[in-house]
Design brief:
Chain lengths: 635, 325
């Protein structure tokens, strides 16, 4: 292309000027950076040369009512690595890889990260203190064992389904840990290390400490001494009856404080991954709903007494073994019937037709009202996660049959905590208290109480006088009736048995029962109320009076002593004072018949046959009431 | 100090090469540039073939020769400018033919370079070519239109590759993601700023220890500024500007229009690359991987730079030993 010489030179000059201009820009930028922004960038550079070594926060404890630690913390350091401080990551990987059991490749990938600080995870997270000391002794440049904690469970599995557990970063994942996470968790602290660019700590500058904040403690209403008794009894029962699951609640009926709360089976919260989520996610005493059975008769009784439609000692009822309601034959648990009884005996014998009569006298509408007033059909507000509401009949569906079955505790479903709340009201003078489990939150730094739960009386459901009659009737149940296995010398115990067939998909399950007992003591002025339910016990008559009553009796006895002295030694387990009985003759009976006899013994079968040809001990031998009879069949 | 030894070896090779080139007459033949251009295109295609090309930092830009790695784009830059300068110097060519020839000769290698992708090299080459076209006397209106379409192309390029958008964001606000996309830009500023007037002294860089990736390469200038301060940076910039000025002076005195345009093209190439590198390091420009001529570590780059010196010196010679042509 032809252009003039002059134009050529002009164009060249312009290019030169442009390039001079560009480099002037660079110089201006340098002036800006190195003079005007000198201070700002110097500060920022220093910040980037300082590294903070995180110190994990101390999570708050979960305490029992006396301040004993249920869940605490245990030192378990975590390894941190500052890549800039060590030129030989290969060697670092070789040295610590085998110690923490981490694959070299994976470890190298982590410590080669372009980062000020690398947390060596998961194998370097929460190692044992001893291992951390060993690693510190190796003096590997850039490798630090940062203070870190894991949860400590001094009582192991105890209360696990209530307190829950924490996850990888000590965050609450279930139970109290989850619900009260914001209270329990603290703020991390850190050591600030001033380093030069190579990351070598500067000798003339002291390390700074950035203060964290300790988490706050959560104090439960639980009394560990009572809890231990309860857990011991449940564990024994689980083993003895090979039950599917079991629950127990101990509450102070006068204010709603839950003193013990147990579910079996429970689990080790430090390795929660090893159990099914249906175990760690379900706090059975509030989660489980089932047909209450006879324990529910206390509500019918309270309503009838409050409505003054019955005089327990004067009025009589004749039980022929069943009652017909709208063509349906509703049986008493005793096939041949109880015959003529006073209504006090109806209560003692837990006679179903008698309670249908009581329910009738109260009336369908009134009975429904009482049931709802006693707190059924809605959450108790205990504040525990996963609480169910249970199912009652709706008004439209509450026909005569439903009315009748509800009177003796069938056809509805309730939670254990609802039953405890209701029965507590029935025996404490009629006051329905909200059950609660968290007593205080306590400042982790100062140990000052941050917040306290006060007992909350929801309403009065029956009068003091009625309540006194209910207490008396239930004491009779233990002294003379179906609850006599809960009887203890020197301790006035009142209570009521319960046996209910399990329901699955709307149908009763053949041969599977939940047996329960609710008891309180002292019967004239209750200080403790105890509810125990065993799900699907085997080797014994599936009867609340046989299985659950003695457990409640034992819990009440031991707990009252514990409450009294506070320093009572835990005694060896024993099954109460058992009577010796004569063994019946079982030879010649069939498998099916044996179950219907409802013997209190454990019967161990040998052989596949249907008919018993031999037994040990022989007829008229002496065995304890809860002893074992071995039977041998024809095949 | 393996880096320093290797670099010294390449420096010797480079200076020796420059000396040879400066003496060689074939540089001045038309055929040489056409040949070089074809070789460059072949190599640009070759580097894209798996097995021949080596992938580094996500770009397939290198051919391994065993003893050293070679970047075909470096050769392509020189070849394109040489061929274009010959075309533009030809006074017989019509303007339209010139436009078309320039466009084809430039866009073919640029296309291959962008496939690698090596945005830095492509950008340097395109800008250097525009300096050359400007020197050749194309009307201002042309550059206005090119400027507009350049902006559009730039936007399209950013939209087409998410990592470029991240880089632009990091450029506009590096502190937004100090450990991620803004890391390099920030670490560079943290090296330069605190150095002040005199710097921390030779060998006392802090940032070169892991804070800056490959401190010997694209970010060498930031380490230089950290150790030698503003004074050091000023001297380096002054040295580059003096070199470019001298080179342009040689261009003004060149015997033929063709040689003049070649010198302008090669000088612009080095100037643009120098500015791009310094602009990135000082935060004037978004992070783009280009080396600093003469200073950055890297055999291919260093030898090529000295090769260009040899070419410029050769073309600028007042006596034409081939005189008989």
């Amino acid at each position: 292309m032809a252009i003039s010489k002059l134009k050529q030179i002009v164009r060249l000059r312009m290019i030169w000027i442009m390039i001079i201009f560009l480099f002037l820009l660079v110089l201006f930028k340098l002036v800006q950076l190195q003079f005007f922004q000198f201070d700002e960038l110097t500060t920022k550079a220093k910040e980037s040369w300082d590294r903070e070594l995180p110190y994990a926060s101390l999570r708050g404890n979960i305490l029992d009512r006396n301040g004993e630690v249920i869940v605490g913390n245990k030192l378990s350091p975590t390894l941190f690595y500052m890549p800039s401080q060590n030129d030989d990551p290969e060697q670092v990987a070789d040295e610590i890889g085998p110690l923490i059991g981490m694959d070299k490749g994976e470890l190298l990938e982590q410590i080669n990260k372009r980062s000020y600080l690398v947390k060596i995870a998961p194998k370097g997270k929460n190692i044992s203190s001893e291992l951390a000391m060993d690693i510190q002794d190796k003096n590997i440049k850039g490798l630090y064992a940062g203070v870190d904690y894991i949860r400590d469970y001094p009582y192991g599995n105890m209360l696990s389904r209530l307190v829950g557990f924490t996850g990888y970063d000590a965050q609450g994942l279930a139970g109290i840990e989850y619900q009260y996470d914001s209270i329990l968790k603290g703020e991390s602290s850190a050591v600030r290390m001033f380093t030069d660019a190579k990351g070598v700590p500067l000798p003339h500058v002291d390390d700074g400490w950035k203060n964290g904040v300790k988490g706050n403690h959560v104090q439960l209403t639980v009394d560990l001494d009572i809890q231990k008794v309860v857990e011991r009894e449940l564990t024994q029962a689980m083993q003895k009856y090979e039950a599917t699951q079991a629950i127990a609640i101990v509450m102070n009926p006068k204010n709603g404080e839950i003193l013990a709360l147990a579910s079996a089976p429970n689990f080790d919260p430090s390795s929660y991954q090893e159990v099914d989520s249906t175990i760690y996610n379900r706090n059975l005493p509030v989660w489980m709903t089932f047909e209450p059975g006879s324990t529910f008769k206390i509500i019918t009784l309270s309503a009838a007494l409050e409505e003054k439609v019955v005089d327990l000692e004067e009025d009589h009822f004749h039980d022929i073994g069943y009652t017909m309601v709208e063509g349906a034959r509703l049986r008493c648990w005793k096939r041949e019937g109880h015959g003529d009884q006073t209504f006090l005996e109806v209560v003692e014998n837990s006679c179903n037709p008698g309670f249908i009569e009581l329910g009738n006298r109260v009336g369908a509408e009134k009975l429904s009202e009482y049931i709802r007033n006693f707190g059924f059909g809605e959450s108790t507000g205990s504040g525990m996660a996963g609480e169910s509401t249970g199912i009652l009949f709706s008004k439209e569906n509450f026909g005569p049959v439903e009315h009748a079955t509800t009177s003796f505790g069938q056809g509805i479903s309730v939670t254990p905590i609802q039953q405890v709340q209701a029965v507590a009201a029935a025996v404490n003078g009629g006051y329905l208290y909200k059950p609660f489990i968290v007593k205080n939150t306590i400042d982790g730094e100062t140990n000052e109480i941050l917040s306290s739960s006060e007992p909350e009386m929801k309403r009065q459901v029956i009068s003091e006088e009625t309540s006194a009659i209910v207490r008396d009737a239930l004491e009779h149940v233990v002294a003379e009736g179906s609850g006599r296995n809960a009887y203890r010398d020197q301790l006035r115990i009142g209570g009521k048995t319960g046996t209910a067939q399990k329901v699955q998909d709307g149908r009763y399950m053949e041969g599977e029962y939940i047996v329960s007992f609710i008891g309180f003591a002292p019967a004239d002025n209750p200080e403790l109320i105890v509810y125990v339910a065993i799900d699907n016990p085997k080797h014994s008559t599936q009867f609340g009076g046989v299985i659950a009553a003695p457990i409640v009796g034992q819990i009440l006895e031991d707990s009252m002593k514990t409450k009294g002295s506070g320093t009572q030694l835990e005694k060896e387990y024993r099954w109460g004072d058992v009577e010796q009985v004569r063994t019946p003759n079982l030879v010649g009976t069939k498998r099916k018949e044996i179950t219907s006899y409802m013997y209190p013994f454990t019967i161990v079968w040998h052989g596949e046959g249907d008919e018993i040809i031999s037994q040990l001990p022989k007829e008229n031998g002496l065995i304890p009431l809860d002893g074992t009879i071995h039977v041998y069949t024809n095949k | 100090m393996p880096f320093a030894l290797k670099q010294a070896a390449y420096l010797v090779v480079g200076i020796f090469g420059a000396f040879i080139i400066q003496k060689s007459s074939f540089i001045r033949s038309d055929g040489f540039w056409k040949g070089l251009y074809i070789v460059a295109i072949v190599m640009l295609i070759g580097v894209l073939i798996p097995g021949i090309g080596v992938v580094r930092n996500g770009s397939q830009s290198w051919i391994s020769l065993g003893f050293m790695n070679f970047q075909p784009a470096e050769l392509a830059k020189i070849a394109v400018l040489g061929v274009l300068a010959s075309t533009l110097a030809n006074e017989k060519n019509s303007r339209m033919k010139m436009y078309i020839q320039s466009a084809v000769l430039l866009l073919l290698p640029i296309g291959f370079i962008m496939v690698q992708p090596d945005f830095g090299s492509a950008f340097v080459l395109v800008v250097a070519v525009f300096f050359l076209l400007f020197a050749a006397g194309l009307p201002f209106k042309f550059f206005l239109w090119i400027g507009l379409s350049g902006i559009i192309a730039f936007v399209l390029l950013i939209v087409s590759a998410p990592y470029r958008l991240v880089r632009i964001q990091a450029f506009l606000d590096p502190w937004n993601d100090p450990l991620g996309s803004g890391f390099q830009a920030i670490q560079s500023l943290l090296a330069i700023g605190p150095a002040g007037l005199f710097g921390f002294g030779y060998g006392n860089s802090r940032q070169k220890f892991l804070y800056l990736p490959e401190p010997q390469n694209d970010f060498i200038f930031s380490i230089l500024l950290e150790e030698a301060g503003f004074i050091g940076g000023f001297i380096i910039v002054l040295a580059f500007v003096t070199f470019f000025t001298t080179s342009f002076t040689m261009a003004a005195r060149a015997k033929t229009r063709e040689r003049q345009l070649m010198i302008i093209g090669f000088t612009s190439l080095l100037a643009v690359q120098t500015f791009l590198n310094m602009g990135v390091v000082t935060g004037l420009l978004p992070v783009t991987g280009v080396t600093l001529p003469f200073i950055s570590y890297g055999g291919s780059s260093l030898v090529m730079t000295w090769g260009i010196i040899g070419i410029i010196l050769n073309l600028a010679k007042e006596t034409d030993k081939e005189g008989g042509r």
